Amino acid sequence: MSADRRLTRRAFTSGLTSFGLGASSAFAQGFAGLGGEATGFAPVVPGRQLVFPADFGAHPAFRIEWWYVTANLRDANGTDYGAQWTLFRQATAPPPQQEGWANQQIWMGHAAVTSAATHRFAETFARGGIGQAGVHIQPFHAWIDSWDMAAIAPMNDATLAPLQLSARGTDFSYALRLDATQPLVLQGDGGYSKKSERGQASYYFSQPYFSASGTLALDGKPIAVTGHAWMDREWSSQPLASDQTGWDWFSLHLASGDKVMLFRLRHADGQHYFAGNWIGRDGKSVQLAPSAIVMTPTASTTIGNRKLPTQWRIAMAERGLTIDCTPLNAQSWMGTSFPYWEGPITFHGSHSGVGYLEMTGY
Amino acid sequence: MSRALWILAVLMSHWRRHPMQFATLVTGLIAATALWSGVQALNQQARASYDRAAAIFGGTRTATLIDPAHAVFPQQLFVDLRRAGWPVSPVLEDRVQIGGRSFRLLGIDPVTLPPEAAAISTVGPRQLAAFIAPPGRTLVAPETLQDLGLRDGATPQLNDTVTLPPLQLEPRLAPGVLVMDIGMAQRALNKPNEISRLLVGQQTQGMRPPLESITGSTLQLVQPDAESDLARLTDSFHLNLTAFGLLSFLVGLFIVNSAVGLAFEQRLPTIRTLRACGASLRMLTAVLIAELVAISLAAGLLGLIGGYLIAAALLPDVAASLRGLYGARIPGQLALDPQWWLSGLAMSTLGALAAAASSFVKMARLPVLAAAMPAAWHETQQRWLRLQGGLAMSMIFTAAGMAWFGDSLMSGFALLATLLLGAALALPVVLDATLDMGARWSRGPLINWSWADSRQQLPGLSLALMALLLALAVNVGVGTMVSSFSTTFLRWLDGRLAADVYISATTDAQASAIKAWLAQRHDIDAVLPSGRAEVQIDGAPVEILGLADHATYRDRWPLLQATANVWDKLRDGDAALVSEQLARRLKLDVGGRLPILTPAGPWSLGIVGVYADYGNPKGQFAVNVDAMFEHFPEALRTRFGLRVAPAHIDTVVNALRRQFDLDSRQLADQATVKTESKRIFNRTFAVTTALNAFTLGVAGIALLTSLLTLGNARLPQLAPLWAIGLTRRRLAAIELAKTMAVALVTALLALPLGLVVAWCLIAVVNVKAFGWRLPFQMFPLQMLTLLGVAMVAALCATLLPVLKLARMQPAKLIRIFADER
Lengths: 362, 821
Prior knowledge:
The complex is a heterodimer. Chain A is mainly β. In chain A, the strands form two sheets. In chain A, strands 1, 2, 3, 4, 5, 6, 7, 8, 9, 10, 11, 12 and 13 form a 13-stranded antiparallel beta sheet that branches. In chain A, strands 14, 15, 16, 17, 18, 19, 20, 21, 22 and 23 form a ten-stranded antiparallel beta sheet that branches. Chain A has one domain: AttH-like fold, CATH 2.40.370. Mean pLDDT of chain A is 86; it is low at 1-36. Chain A is built from no helices and 23 strands. Chain B is α+β, with helices and mostly antiparallel strands. Chain B has four domains: 1-56 and 235-375, no CATH class; 62-224, no CATH class; 382-497 and 671-821, no CATH class; 506-661, no CATH class. Helices cover 61% and strands 14% of the residues of chain B. In chain B, strands 15, 16, 17, 18, 19, 20 and 21 form a seven-stranded mixed beta sheet that branches. Chain B has a six-stranded mixed beta sheet with strand order 9-4-3-11-1-12. In chain B, a hairpin with a 2-residue loop joins strand 15 and strand 16. The interface between A and B is large, with 39 and 42 residues.
């Protein structure tokens, strides 16, 4: 398994050999060599206190970082949709920060809209230091090209809401307003999220309580939608462990109001690394024991020459949870420079609800 | 299967008995394939290098945004456009001097560079970080590295102040270009936060808002051209080569046609016998086709090798032509892809099959039990001749229409093609009419017989005669054009090289030192300062030449058109002389105005004259040198000319060379420059001349094979004459006279046709291709020589069959009557 194939949203999971830039960009093929050792970058250590709003912004001392929003949406007719908005940052060199074009940050944006019938996505790249992409802390504003995630004043630093979210590609666009009343949630152990037994980790917090409303447009036809959205903020410097080949990640909005984040980092030897957090209605985030998570693929979809497990059974005996997850569109393939699967899902069983699934390294 | 093999063996035995015929067939195929594939190889090589040149910077293949009023504009507009959803990528470009040589420095942003703007990926895998992070990289072609005299990794300096990022070899890059990250380029050119243009990618993020709503009226969208600049510029040149290649190919096929026809004719009895023995028509056809395909593949392979050799031999000249005419640089090493080999073999095979098609049709219609009386070779058909005449007329009318209405390079070539084809088709009709007329005016049975026999012979010879006509006409046309060009060019060169010694100093300081030193000397009649600058007009670079106000120019500078007191007006400052190419391209006229943007602001120039500027790929205009430095204060003042009495030239040149250590690029006397220019000129047309000679040679072979074919088939016509008392020698003499007469008529027809071709080349094709028009001149001596060469070629071709006839065993002639025919 080549390093390039492993990349994903949870970028460090891939060793972030790159965000990868595929054939869609002249620069694409050039991005690969950025991996390697994290010498000169800040380490991820347990016990760091995340601070808001400072941690809304970029952490250029760390190698990689992302602002990631997924939304499960529905229109007035009851038709389901999904939307994705992602901003990645990667540093080509450790600090100090250089000015202008010499700035070592490379930014990548991914956006997508999914329905049962179609999956549309777009990708874009930018250099730091000149204003084409970046993140302001106050007022909060993350952008690349014409894609924005911006605070609607007055924004509450505790909830990171309300936000205006927009992106567009050749054949789709969306503009959503995100509101939340509950505060941000720290993932892992107080925001320290382990990715392997050997110490690979990231800083990770989320806003899983967003309610979303706004408009999607497919082929120029506007559709009014409402639903749930989930934001992940994560940054790190460390590459994936060398024997980790990919990643299956879930964010679940349970009908009960509880939220669940869980992932499986696949190991070449089958000894996968499991992790997750159960986030109660009350906002309390509890780390799940790896042994308590059972994730079983139940059906797969062939996309191109890849075979992806698009249906899953998830069981957590401690929580009395056994659910079967079905994708809204099994062809939710992000054919970006670094291809991966990312799309909305619904689930039934002991609990029901909606969520997002991301699978990389297939 | 074994039956097929037996049939093949029987048919092949024919070649064993007629090795000469086999050689003719193979020669025809080899000649056709070699010339065609050689020309294709040259074209392919050149096109690949244009792609290389166009690849890196998007060239004109990508839509761009420019500021029509300024050379650069703020980088913030790039960010604003990206933020509005425009898929743009910034480029900063300027010319720089390193060690006295000029290079094009190009700053790009590899992260946003649209994929279609970079046919080669500028920044290979794992190079991005090194490219954009300090110290960065300067990508250069091997040729550039050689020009700089530096190694990979070296860090050259600009103006002794700015150090460029380390050089890195990038073989796919065009020569003369330095490519680096835009940030590094801004620093090197001291243009912080400025860009020259924006490439507009094809990937859009949905609907993009109108340009005006983002950048106001600052930027202007320039739509892409389908081809790169160089590809477009040099189209005519390649079309020219292709036309020659195709002509040679067709002439080669004439040979194949006659060889296959002859073989078929002679194998008719065998074929009839085989059919009578039970070989099916289908089987026979299949075997004959298989045989032909096998021969054509083998010959095609040899032809390809020949083509490779031709291309390799001509490449230096082609490279020199392209550099001289268009400034396009192509590498001197041939690199051919497998497609070239395959297409060459395909051409050879398909050509052979096409040439043999009529024979196959004939065989298919051959009745099994018919008497083995071979049809007279191509029986005369008045109806066919009339049809051909009509076709020829319509071709010539089309050509006339093209000449009248056509306004493009393609229509120019179409005009040539229809004209030549029409003339070739008309040839048999004209010859037939001529022979008919001759027959009416002549007395005596033998003369009458020979006129009639010539007419009867005509269909068999007409293809070869057409080939001769085409080859001769093209030779006359191209020869006239080249000679016209040559005389005009040399006269122009005399006027244009006004100064006696040319100096190009390395730096302004050195230039001042040289001028001070010259002022001390008494053998210098005048120092003529000159200046060079470059501006963009309509997105294309245009040269500006600064001329001193001096009698030298007044007396000698060659003007095509001028107002009264042109040089006084030029001295006053706001006036310009424009080159013919620029005048044609921008549709400028004397009395008009040419507004340009200079570093010191807009400058509106009145056009006071037009001058010839042969061989310059760029547009150019000349202004007074002092006025130029006012508007281009940064322009280098390193070039100047000297007027020196002829007796002192060598002394001055040697003294200068010693004193300032100048090499031949920096110091040259007029004679040297002139010799060099002539050398380049001669190389430019060396290819044309070589292809011309090849075509004529192939036409000669075509004539020879046709006559050989006819020789055998015509024995039945000659035998009775011999039987009634004509000696073989007499018969041979009549044969010789007849063929030479027909060839002479053809050659005489070719001369006016060639002049028309020359006119088309000079008045239509050249003007479109190069932007200049030459005065049309006739060269009677050259035409006479060519006529002589054609007649000698015809004589050589006729001699072999005629000698054969003269020495033929009487028994063979008698056998004509004995044979069951």
